[in-house]
Amino acid sequence: MKLSEPESNMFHELYYPLLYYTNQKRRLIPDVFTVRGLRKKSSEQLKIIRNVLFQQLNLFDQFIFENPFHFSSPELEIVDDWKHSCVGKYFIFRETNYYTIFLSNIKPIKAYGVMALNKEFNEIFTEELPIYIETALLPFKDKIITDGIFSYYRLKFGAGFARNLQKSYQQAIDQEGLIVSL
Question: Which of 91, 122, 124, 172 is such that its CA lies 20 to 30 A from the CA of 154?
Fold first, then answer.
């Protein structure tokens, strides 16, 4: 399941200016002069900016206070909610009709119901599940999405590992249920 096109567009219209702002404040990638120029950078470069942003949450507050892109109050509330994001490594575990199930890789294991941005996850990652990635899970309205910036670890998992993941998934569901909002 993925966001509607207007929702996906809204996410990109908010997130990339925030990354651009972070880059301007911390001077991480020197040859970026516009939001459009930032969007052309590699995932690895965007990941550097994203990681600094989520390590220095005061950048969210500065961005909201300065409001350099003249966002509306509801748009700034969405940006403020992103302070509650979860950046880390996850297993893309299972596809359902409504979500893609991401499992955290640290204990206690948590199961997240995540929606894709523009393309379904099975269009991005064509390998057999589970897949091990690093990304950011962000609240977006009443959903969980990724920021679309992935580090992908090309690992093959055996049947024993898959069984252990299934057990971890079941334990996560039994303890907290499927987390569908942050």
Answer: 172
